[in-house]
Please model this.
Amino acid sequence: MASVDVAHGRHDWLRAGAFEVAPGVHRIPLPMPGDGLRAVNVYAIRDGDGLVLVDSGWAIPQARAALETALGELGCGLGDVRRYLITHLHRDHYTLGIELRSTFGTPVAVGAGERPSLEVLLAGTHDQQLSQLDRGGASELAELIRSAQGPETERPEEGFEHPDEWLEGGAEIELTDRTLRVVDTPGHTRGHVVFVDERNSLLFAGDHVLPHITPSIGLEAARTELPLGDYLDSLRRVRELPDLRLLPAHGPVTGSAHSRVDELLAHHEDRLDRTERAVRTGAATAREVAGELGWTRRERSFTDLDPFNQVLAVGETAAHLDVLVARDRLHRVVDGVARYRAI
Model:
């Protein structure tokens, strides 16, 4: 077992194991399929003679094996986990906890704001996300996604079930040696929550505040009217907390949540300015604007992105455009497709 967190470099955080980030708290990176984010951090918190986990990982055999091995470094097994506290509904955070619940009976808790998205998933009515592409002027991309959905394609609802508990913002979770406060942070998803251990200066941030990337905005089963607006408000809510050590779901642990929140707020203001300029120079739909913007740290063009990341790009661009409308910086007309123009 590593006695301290070794994730100081950009990619060191991907190393397998259990790494102490604070007394009684260990970071455990678990693998994810594909070559995008590559891993998700779950956090094992000592609770008496057992453990509580913040997030659970993706329900794939490699993640389950990695979790079992890492818990073994702590002298525990999968059956010693007393509870899963999930920051949000995405597959890499939620589904391994659901799978392990079926074996060990371990209860799973998630933010109450995720209920509408989970109901859509479980009902099998997933066309809302593709409809968002149609609305964004990306019908060709929507058709590409539809045509790729064959009988062997993993269905969006696979691996999802109702949690044992819906967490309300402001609730306090009493563990043996600490109290975790639930803070609502909608934006990345409508029901995203973070867990604040103020006495020990720790922020279990999920995907809300990430050290090297910005979380996707606007891609979920039941999208809110203004997801980026929700996200910016949630960032300001975290900024009002004491400055806590940032324990993110993707990337290394860092010393100051405040400094990263400030960077994220500045990034989105810059992105809003660039989005408005694209409209003023002739782009009208989310797809057209996305084609005028750079993506990732390398400022890649939209056409260089794979289809999944193109979907994310269109959704995020639409989210920025709608905030500009809400701020009276753009005008929007919707006739099947949402089109934007300068005021």
Residues 55 and 259 are 24 Å apart (CA to CA). The chain has a mean pLDDT of 93. The chain has nine helices and 14 strands.
